[in-house]
Design a protein that fits this description.
By secondary structure, this protein is α/β, with parallel strands linked by helices. The protein folds into 2 domains: 244 residues, Aldehyde Dehydrogenase, Chain A, domain 1; 185 residues, 3-Layer(aba) Sandwich (Aldehyde Dehydrogenase, Chain A, domain 2). It contains 15 helices and 24 strands.
């Protein structure tokens, strides 16, 4: 007689142990490509779990900060090696819980590998500065100091890469961490912390509290012992995070929305531009903050570009991301699917031309998942809502433009400023665009996605609040500069005042 197998339950991770949430509650995590598949039951914690996790992190910080940075880095290096060895299984689990195709989840895990190796290197490269003093016999230098307990709130679209962008620099610098993963994708964070623990990370240095934003995220960002909050998600929620940190003057790092554009000039390589538009617009089913959701095309090549783009997009294969033949996976959940469907209706009502897609896929192999056709709107006005608001799904709006000047105006005419791209063979025009595009990331002859871990990542305007992730810039979020003066003159010297000789103070 067959026996039903109980789903695995994943608990919070506090002070080196997997523990039940104080309220005993759990939430289901199901495969967005097949709602019949239950990935597991995950803790649905509350403020009491946050308090316990922050206390564990605070206690661990006292000793972790004193571990020499190169020794902390050795743990990260071992963790990176373990991620390499387990890349295939971690990627498959990520596809099951998040939906994007296996080739992309492998890329997600690879980003975590790259970031972990990179920050392991920073264990011996947390350079400060030395500089001449204006006074004789005086030495001046700066050093980085850890901040303390870091509260990390991460999204579902890059469930291992983005936690690694935040976690690895924080750990390399000697901070401790409490992370709240997205409720849709907690498994990948559990895997990442399991790897760090196996690599030798001491108890309490990293803690996980799973649960909904109001129950876990809000008390985490407001806890007085949390010294910095790093958040990636929507601009709407980011504003609330900023407001929550403000009363305590708490350090706050925000990575939020985007409405990214590809500009296709009349001299562009159209084959290359179409390739970039397909990948930029529909990679990760459009669920990237850097996704190409707008395309401005010079009127001289507009008709030809749209025809090629539509043909390519109509041929994309949509389905379960574990099937290697599929190119586009499902939306992450029902809510995200409904958002996409509502924007399709908005586009129609605004008078945009529906050139491809526009419908939910719910028959046959799509019946049990949150699938939507890759969708293109053509002949769009830049002021339409579908050209102004972040959709976070497989919907791309194409706009005809008169020339380069209008292209820049349209590109900059949104409240976001994350990523932009221009396709042109004119070197002068390319360099001019690099200067004029109001985004934190600019690509030339490449789509708006594809950031690399050794370069700063982030945006301006309503995309971010001035900080950057990845590379050396990522260290700045999780460290404080300390300036040190050593006077070996054996007498009182007064900076900005002392122009002569002064005797010792008695």
């Amino acid at each position: 007689m067959a026996t039903a197998v109980s789903p695995k339950t994943y608990r919070n991770f506090i002070n080196g142990e997997w523990v039940e949430p104080k309220n005993g509650k759990t939430t289901e995590n199901r495969n967005p490509a097949n709602q019949d598949e239950l990935i597991g039951l995950f803790a649905a914690g509350d403020e009491r779990d946050v308090v316990a996790a922050v206390e564990a992190a605070s206690q661990a910080y006292r000793s972790w900060r004193r571990v020499p940075a190169p020794k902390r880095a050795e743990i990260l290096f071992r963790a990176a090696q373990l991620l390499v060895a387990r890349k295939e299984e971690l990627s498959r689990d990520m596809t099951r819980e998040m939906g994007k195709v296996l080739a992309e989840t492998k890329g997600d895990v690879q980003e975590a590998i790259d970031m972990t190796y990179y920050m392991a290197g920073e264990g011996r490269r947390q350079f400060g500065q030395t500089t001449p003093s204006e006074l004789q016999n005086k030495f001046a230098m700066t050093v980085r100091e850890p901040v303390g307990v870091c509260g990390l709130i991460t999204p579902w679209n890059f469930p291992m890469a983005i936690p690694s962008w935040k976690m690895m620099p924080a750990l390399a610098l000697g901070n401790t961490v409490v992370i709240k993963p997205a409720t849709d994708t907690p498994l990948s964070v559990c895997h990442l912390v399991e790897v760090l623990t196996e690599a030798g990370l001491p108890p309490g240095v990293v803690n996980i509290v799973m649960g909904h934003g109001g129950a876990v995220g809000t008390p985490l960002l407001k806890h007085e012992s949390v010294k910095v909050v790093s958040f990636t998600g929507s601009t709407e929620v980011g504003r609330k995070v900023s407001e929550g940190c403000a009363p305590q003057f708490k350090h706050c790092h925000l990575e939020m929305g985007g409405k990214n554009i590809i500009l296709v000039m009349d001299d562009a390589n159209l084959d290359l531009a179409v390739d970039g538009a397909v990948w930029g617009g529909f990679g990760t089913t459009g669920q990237r903050c850097t996704a190409t959701s707008r395309i401005g095309v010079h009127k001289k090549v507009y008709k030809e570009f749209v025809e090629r783009f539509v043909a390519r997009v109509k041929a994309l294969r949509v389905g379960d991301g574990l099937d290697p033949a599929m190119e586009v996976g499902p939306l992450v959940n029902q809510s995200q699917l409904e958002t996409v469907m509502s924007y399709v209706e908005i586009g129609k009502s605004e008078g945009a031309k529906l050139a491809a897609g526009g419908h939910r896929l719910d028959q046959g192999g799509h019946a049990k998942g949150w699938f939507h056709e890759p969708t293109i709107f053509a002949d769009c006005d830049p002021k339409m809502r579908i050209c102004q608001e972040e959709i976070f799904g497989p919907v791309v709006s194409v706009m005809p433009i008169e020339g380069y000047e209008q292209a820049i105006e349209v590109a900059n005419g949104v409240v976001y400023g994350l990523s932009s791209s221009i396709y042109t063979r004119d070197l002068n025009r390319a360099f001019h665009a690099m200067r004029e595009l109001d985004t934190g990331i600019v690509y030339v002859n490449a789509p708006t996605i594809g950031a690399e871990t050794h370069l700063p990542f982030g945006g301006i305007k309503q995309t971010g609040n001035g900080h950057r992730e990845a590379a050396v810039a990522g260290l700045d979020v999780f460290s404080e500069w300390k300036t040190i003066y050593v006077d070996y003159s054996d007498r009182l010297q007064r900076a900005q005042i002392d122009t002569g000789s002064f005797g010792r103070m008695e």
